[in-house]
Amino acid sequence: MSFPDVRMRRLRRTEALRRMCRETVLRRDDLILPLFVVEGSGVREPVASMPGVHRHSVDTLVNELKEVHDLGIPGVILFGIPTDKDARGSGADAADGIVQRAVEAAKRAEPGLCVITDVCLCEYTDHGHCGVLDGEQVENDPSVERLAATAVSHARAGADVVAPSDMMDGRVAAIRAALDADGHRDVAILSYAAKFASAFYGPFRDAAESTPAFGDRRAYQMDPPNAREALREMRLDLAEGADALMVKPALPYLDVLAAARREFDLPLAAYHVSGEYAMLKAAAERGWLDGERAMAEALLAIKRAGADWILTYAAKEIAPTL
Ligand code: PBG
Predict the structure, then answer these.
(1) Does any domain span residue 4?
(2) Which domain holds residue 105?
(3) 148-165, pLDDT tens digit by residue?
(4) Can you tell me whether residue 264 is helix, strand or coil?
(5) Catalytic: 248?
(6) Are 309 and 30 in contact (CB under 8 A)?
(7) DSSP 3
(8) Domains identified in the chain, total number
(9) What residue ranges line ligand 1, CB within 6 angstroms?
(10) Distances from the Cα of 36 to the Cαs of 7, 47, 82, in angstroms?
(11) What is the tens place of the pLDDT at every residue in 14-36?
(12) Which one from 85, 195, 281, 303 is the annotated catalytic residue?
Protein backbone atom coordinates (compact mmCIF):
# COMPACT_ATOMS: atom_id res chain seq x y z
CA MET A 1 0.00 0.00 0.00
CA SER A 2 1.12 3.50 -0.67
CA PHE A 3 -0.31 6.97 -1.20
CA PRO A 4 -3.19 7.81 -1.52
CA ASP A 5 -4.28 4.83 0.63
CA VAL A 6 -1.47 5.46 3.04
CA ARG A 7 -1.43 8.92 4.57
CA MET A 8 1.32 9.31 7.16
CA ARG A 9 -0.10 12.62 8.31
CA ARG A 10 -3.21 10.94 9.80
CA LEU A 11 -1.27 10.01 12.92
CA ARG A 12 0.37 13.43 13.26
CA ARG A 13 -2.89 15.38 13.24
CA THR A 14 -3.39 16.07 16.94
CA GLU A 15 -1.14 16.34 19.96
CA ALA A 16 -2.82 13.29 21.53
CA LEU A 17 -2.07 11.18 18.45
CA ARG A 18 1.50 12.45 18.36
CA ARG A 19 1.93 11.55 22.02
CA MET A 20 0.59 8.05 21.36
CA CYS A 21 3.01 7.52 18.48
CA ARG A 22 6.17 8.74 20.22
CA GLU A 23 8.86 6.06 20.02
CA THR A 24 11.43 7.66 22.28
CA VAL A 25 10.89 9.49 25.55
CA LEU A 26 13.58 11.36 27.41
CA ARG A 27 13.33 10.81 31.16
CA ARG A 28 14.89 12.48 34.16
CA ASP A 29 16.35 9.06 34.96
CA ASP A 30 18.48 9.31 31.81
CA LEU A 31 20.35 12.41 32.98
CA ILE A 32 23.73 12.85 34.63
CA LEU A 33 24.94 16.36 35.48
CA PRO A 34 28.67 17.15 35.26
CA LEU A 35 29.91 19.44 38.05
CA PHE A 36 33.23 21.24 38.57
CA VAL A 37 34.69 21.52 42.07
CA VAL A 38 37.35 24.04 43.09
CA GLU A 39 39.18 24.88 46.33
CA GLY A 40 37.90 27.57 48.70
CA SER A 41 34.53 28.30 50.25
CA GLY A 42 31.47 30.17 49.09
CA VAL A 43 32.63 29.85 45.49
CA ARG A 44 30.04 29.76 42.70
CA GLU A 45 31.81 31.23 39.70
CA PRO A 46 30.25 31.19 36.26
CA VAL A 47 32.15 29.52 33.41
CA ALA A 48 32.21 32.20 30.68
CA SER A 49 31.99 29.85 27.72
CA MET A 50 29.22 27.74 29.29
CA PRO A 51 26.23 29.92 30.27
CA GLY A 52 24.41 28.38 33.25
CA VAL A 53 27.44 26.32 34.39
CA HIS A 54 29.41 27.21 37.53
CA ARG A 55 32.51 26.07 39.37
CA HIS A 56 31.64 25.27 42.98
CA SER A 57 33.61 24.94 46.17
CA VAL A 58 32.67 21.91 48.28
CA ASP A 59 30.25 23.91 50.49
CA THR A 60 28.23 25.39 47.63
CA LEU A 61 28.39 22.10 45.74
CA VAL A 62 26.25 20.61 48.48
CA ASN A 63 23.46 23.12 47.74
CA GLU A 64 23.71 22.31 44.07
CA LEU A 65 23.39 18.59 44.82
CA LYS A 66 20.24 19.18 46.80
CA GLU A 67 18.75 20.98 43.80
CA VAL A 68 19.83 18.14 41.52
CA HIS A 69 18.23 15.59 43.83
CA ASP A 70 15.02 17.62 44.15
CA LEU A 71 14.81 17.82 40.35
CA GLY A 72 14.80 14.02 40.19
CA ILE A 73 18.17 13.72 38.44
CA PRO A 74 19.71 10.43 39.62
CA GLY A 75 23.42 11.12 39.17
CA VAL A 76 26.28 13.58 38.87
CA ILE A 77 29.83 13.29 37.60
CA LEU A 78 32.41 15.29 39.52
CA PHE A 79 35.53 16.96 38.14
CA GLY A 80 38.10 18.26 40.62
CA ILE A 81 40.18 21.31 39.82
CA PRO A 82 43.09 21.60 42.27
CA THR A 83 45.06 24.77 42.97
CA ASP A 84 48.41 22.99 42.90
CA LYS A 85 49.48 20.95 39.92
CA ASP A 86 52.68 19.02 39.25
CA ALA A 87 54.19 16.73 36.63
CA ARG A 88 52.74 13.47 37.99
CA GLY A 89 49.36 14.89 38.98
CA SER A 90 49.87 14.20 42.69
CA GLY A 91 46.56 15.83 43.56
CA ALA A 92 44.62 13.22 41.57
CA ASP A 93 44.97 10.44 44.15
CA ALA A 94 45.47 12.53 47.31
CA ALA A 95 43.25 11.22 50.11
CA ASP A 96 42.33 14.82 51.00
CA GLY A 97 42.30 16.03 47.38
CA ILE A 98 39.62 18.30 46.02
CA VAL A 99 37.47 15.66 44.37
CA GLN A 100 37.87 13.20 47.26
CA ARG A 101 36.55 15.84 49.69
CA ALA A 102 33.74 16.67 47.27
CA VAL A 103 32.71 13.00 47.04
CA GLU A 104 32.67 12.63 50.83
CA ALA A 105 30.55 15.77 51.22
CA ALA A 106 28.23 14.67 48.42
CA LYS A 107 27.59 11.21 49.87
CA ARG A 108 27.02 12.71 53.31
CA ALA A 109 24.60 15.38 52.03
CA GLU A 110 22.74 13.36 49.39
CA PRO A 111 23.34 9.66 49.99
CA GLY A 112 20.68 8.73 47.45
CA LEU A 113 22.43 10.46 44.57
CA CYS A 114 24.74 8.39 42.35
CA VAL A 115 28.19 9.97 42.52
CA ILE A 116 30.42 9.29 39.53
CA THR A 117 33.97 10.60 39.38
CA ASP A 118 35.99 11.45 36.32
CA VAL A 119 39.29 9.57 36.60
CA CYS A 120 42.00 11.43 34.70
CA LEU A 121 45.23 13.27 35.38
CA CYS A 122 44.81 16.26 33.05
CA GLU A 123 43.22 18.54 35.67
CA TYR A 124 46.06 17.69 38.07
CA THR A 125 49.18 17.81 35.89
CA ASP A 126 51.08 21.05 35.30
CA HIS A 127 51.49 20.06 31.62
CA GLY A 128 47.76 19.36 31.18
CA HIS A 129 48.16 15.91 29.60
CA CYS A 130 46.07 12.96 30.75
CA GLY A 131 49.06 10.86 31.87
CA VAL A 132 52.66 11.12 32.97
CA LEU A 133 55.36 12.14 30.52
CA ASP A 134 58.70 10.94 29.29
CA GLY A 135 59.94 14.02 27.46
CA GLU A 136 56.91 15.05 25.43
CA GLN A 137 55.50 11.50 25.23
CA VAL A 138 52.57 10.44 27.39
CA GLU A 139 53.74 7.11 28.81
CA ASN A 140 51.00 4.51 28.88
CA ASP A 141 51.88 2.01 31.62
CA PRO A 142 53.11 4.44 34.30
CA SER A 143 49.98 6.53 33.62
CA VAL A 144 47.79 3.47 34.14
CA GLU A 145 49.32 2.97 37.60
CA ARG A 146 48.55 6.58 38.52
CA LEU A 147 44.99 6.23 37.20
CA ALA A 148 44.38 3.04 39.18
CA ALA A 149 45.57 4.77 42.35
CA THR A 150 43.30 7.69 41.54
CA ALA A 151 40.27 5.44 41.09
CA VAL A 152 40.99 3.72 44.42
CA SER A 153 41.18 7.10 46.18
CA HIS A 154 37.78 8.03 44.72
CA ALA A 155 36.30 4.72 45.85
CA ARG A 156 37.69 5.22 49.37
CA ALA A 157 35.99 8.62 49.42
CA GLY A 158 32.68 6.92 48.58
CA ALA A 159 32.27 7.17 44.80
CA ASP A 160 29.61 4.83 43.39
CA VAL A 161 31.10 4.77 39.91
CA VAL A 162 34.54 5.70 38.59
CA ALA A 163 34.83 6.90 35.01
CA PRO A 164 38.29 6.80 33.43
CA SER A 165 38.52 9.41 30.64
CA ASP A 166 42.25 9.26 29.89
CA MET A 167 42.24 6.76 26.97
CA MET A 168 45.35 4.88 28.11
CA ASP A 169 45.40 1.21 27.06
CA GLY A 170 44.65 -1.35 29.75
CA ARG A 171 43.38 1.09 32.33
CA VAL A 172 40.00 -0.56 32.87
CA ALA A 173 41.56 -3.90 33.86
CA ALA A 174 44.11 -2.15 36.07
CA ILE A 175 41.42 -0.08 37.78
CA ARG A 176 39.19 -3.15 38.31
CA ALA A 177 42.07 -5.08 39.86
CA ALA A 178 43.11 -2.16 42.07
CA LEU A 179 39.52 -1.54 43.24
CA ASP A 180 39.01 -5.22 44.08
CA ALA A 181 42.33 -5.47 45.91
CA ASP A 182 41.33 -2.48 48.03
CA GLY A 183 37.91 -3.95 48.88
CA HIS A 184 35.74 -2.00 46.41
CA ARG A 185 34.19 -4.87 44.49
CA ASP A 186 30.89 -3.01 44.23
CA VAL A 187 32.27 0.19 42.75
CA ALA A 188 31.38 0.22 39.06
CA ILE A 189 33.47 1.37 36.12
CA LEU A 190 31.98 3.58 33.45
CA SER A 191 34.62 3.59 30.74
CA TYR A 192 35.01 6.53 28.41
CA ALA A 193 35.73 3.80 25.86
CA ALA A 194 35.20 5.64 22.58
CA LYS A 195 36.53 9.08 23.34
CA PHE A 196 37.55 11.09 20.32
CA ALA A 197 40.21 13.80 20.03
CA SER A 198 37.55 16.45 19.53
CA ALA A 199 37.43 20.21 19.06
CA PHE A 200 34.20 20.17 21.08
CA TYR A 201 36.03 19.98 24.45
CA GLY A 202 37.17 23.61 24.21
CA PRO A 203 34.88 25.18 26.84
CA PHE A 204 35.52 22.30 29.28
CA ARG A 205 39.23 22.99 29.18
CA ASP A 206 38.53 26.58 30.25
CA ALA A 207 36.37 25.34 33.10
CA ALA A 208 38.81 22.62 34.19
CA GLU A 209 42.05 24.44 33.34
CA SER A 210 43.23 21.32 31.55
CA THR A 211 44.44 22.58 28.17
CA PRO A 212 47.68 20.75 27.28
CA ALA A 213 50.69 23.07 27.66
CA PHE A 214 52.13 21.65 24.43
CA GLY A 215 50.87 19.40 21.66
CA ASP A 216 47.43 17.81 21.73
CA ARG A 217 45.74 14.56 22.76
CA ARG A 218 45.74 12.85 19.37
CA ALA A 219 48.27 10.21 20.41
CA TYR A 220 45.82 8.80 22.98
CA GLN A 221 42.29 9.95 22.18
CA MET A 222 40.67 8.48 19.07
CA ASP A 223 40.91 9.82 15.54
CA PRO A 224 37.48 11.24 14.57
CA PRO A 225 37.09 9.34 11.27
CA ASN A 226 37.20 5.91 12.94
CA ALA A 227 33.95 4.14 13.82
CA ARG A 228 35.09 0.52 13.55
CA GLU A 229 38.02 1.29 15.81
CA ALA A 230 35.58 2.78 18.33
CA LEU A 231 33.73 -0.53 18.54
CA ARG A 232 37.05 -2.31 19.05
CA GLU A 233 37.88 0.05 21.92
CA MET A 234 34.50 -0.72 23.46
CA ARG A 235 34.91 -4.48 23.12
CA LEU A 236 38.31 -4.29 24.78
CA ASP A 237 36.98 -2.26 27.70
CA LEU A 238 34.07 -4.65 28.10
CA ALA A 239 36.50 -7.57 28.20
CA GLU A 240 38.60 -5.71 30.78
CA GLY A 241 35.58 -5.45 33.06
CA ALA A 242 33.81 -2.18 32.28
CA ASP A 243 30.25 -2.07 33.67
CA ALA A 244 29.12 0.65 31.28
CA LEU A 245 30.61 2.17 28.13
CA MET A 246 30.66 5.74 26.89
CA VAL A 247 30.78 7.45 23.52
CA LYS A 248 32.08 11.01 23.59
CA PRO A 249 31.24 13.55 22.17
CA ALA A 250 27.60 12.67 21.51
CA LEU A 251 25.92 14.42 18.57
CA PRO A 252 28.82 14.27 16.09
CA TYR A 253 29.21 10.53 16.89
CA LEU A 254 25.61 9.29 16.91
CA ASP A 255 26.57 6.72 14.28
CA VAL A 256 29.08 5.21 16.72
CA LEU A 257 26.49 5.26 19.49
CA ALA A 258 23.87 3.55 17.32
CA ALA A 259 26.38 0.88 16.23
CA ALA A 260 27.37 0.32 19.87
CA ARG A 261 23.70 -0.03 20.81
CA ARG A 262 23.28 -2.81 18.25
CA GLU A 263 26.28 -4.69 19.63
CA PHE A 264 26.28 -4.22 23.42
CA ASP A 265 23.78 -5.09 26.13
CA LEU A 266 25.34 -3.14 28.96
CA PRO A 267 24.38 0.48 29.72
CA LEU A 268 25.65 2.95 27.16
CA ALA A 269 26.47 6.50 28.10
CA ALA A 270 26.87 9.46 25.78
CA TYR A 271 28.56 12.70 26.80
CA HIS A 272 26.90 15.79 25.34
CA VAL A 273 30.11 17.73 25.79
CA SER A 274 30.91 21.33 26.62
CA GLY A 275 31.22 22.49 23.00
CA GLU A 276 27.92 20.90 22.02
CA TYR A 277 26.27 22.72 24.93
CA ALA A 278 28.09 26.02 24.32
CA MET A 279 27.17 26.28 20.66
CA LEU A 280 23.46 25.89 21.38
CA LYS A 281 23.68 28.47 24.16
CA ALA A 282 25.59 30.91 21.96
CA ALA A 283 23.12 30.62 19.09
CA ALA A 284 20.18 30.97 21.47
CA GLU A 285 21.70 34.07 23.08
CA ARG A 286 21.84 35.67 19.65
CA GLY A 287 18.23 34.74 19.00
CA TRP A 288 19.32 32.51 16.14
CA LEU A 289 17.41 29.52 17.40
CA ASP A 290 14.97 28.55 20.12
CA GLY A 291 17.44 27.37 22.76
CA GLU A 292 15.03 25.29 24.81
CA ARG A 293 13.60 23.42 21.85
CA ALA A 294 17.02 22.87 20.29
CA MET A 295 18.44 21.51 23.55
CA ALA A 296 15.48 19.15 24.02
CA GLU A 297 15.83 17.94 20.44
CA ALA A 298 19.58 17.36 20.80
CA LEU A 299 19.18 15.31 23.99
CA LEU A 300 16.29 13.33 22.54
CA ALA A 301 18.43 12.50 19.47
CA ILE A 302 21.13 11.10 21.77
CA LYS A 303 18.54 8.93 23.49
CA ARG A 304 17.04 7.80 20.16
CA ALA A 305 20.48 6.77 18.89
CA GLY A 306 20.76 4.40 21.85
CA ALA A 307 22.11 6.13 24.97
CA ASP A 308 20.88 4.97 28.37
CA TRP A 309 22.80 7.62 30.28
CA ILE A 310 23.18 11.15 28.97
CA LEU A 311 25.84 13.33 30.55
CA THR A 312 24.76 16.90 29.92
CA TYR A 313 25.30 20.37 31.36
CA ALA A 314 21.64 20.99 30.51
CA ALA A 315 20.35 18.36 32.96
CA LYS A 316 18.98 20.92 35.43
CA GLU A 317 17.19 23.03 32.83
CA ILE A 318 15.67 20.09 30.97
CA ALA A 319 14.59 18.02 34.02
CA PRO A 320 11.54 20.15 34.96
CA THR A 321 10.19 19.81 31.39
CA LEU A 322 10.24 15.99 31.51
C1 PBG B 1 39.37 14.78 30.94
C2 PBG B 1 38.07 15.09 30.33
C3 PBG B 1 37.76 15.99 29.31
C4 PBG B 1 36.38 15.99 29.18
C5 PBG B 1 35.89 15.07 30.11
N6 PBG B 1 36.95 14.53 30.79
C7 PBG B 1 38.64 16.88 28.53
C8 PBG B 1 39.57 16.37 27.53
O9 PBG B 1 39.68 15.18 27.28
O10 PBG B 1 40.28 17.22 26.99
C11 PBG B 1 35.57 16.84 28.23
C12 PBG B 1 34.18 17.15 28.66
C13 PBG B 1 33.51 18.27 27.94
O14 PBG B 1 34.02 18.84 26.95
O15 PBG B 1 32.40 18.61 28.36
N16 PBG B 1 40.27 14.07 30.19
Answers:
(1) no
(2) 25-321
(3) 999 999 999 999 999 999
(4) coil
(5) yes
(6) yes
(7) T
(8) 1
(9) 118, 120, 122, 130, 165, 201, 204-205, 210, 217, 273-274
(10) 50, 10, 11
(11) 999 999 999 999 999 999 999 99
(12) 195
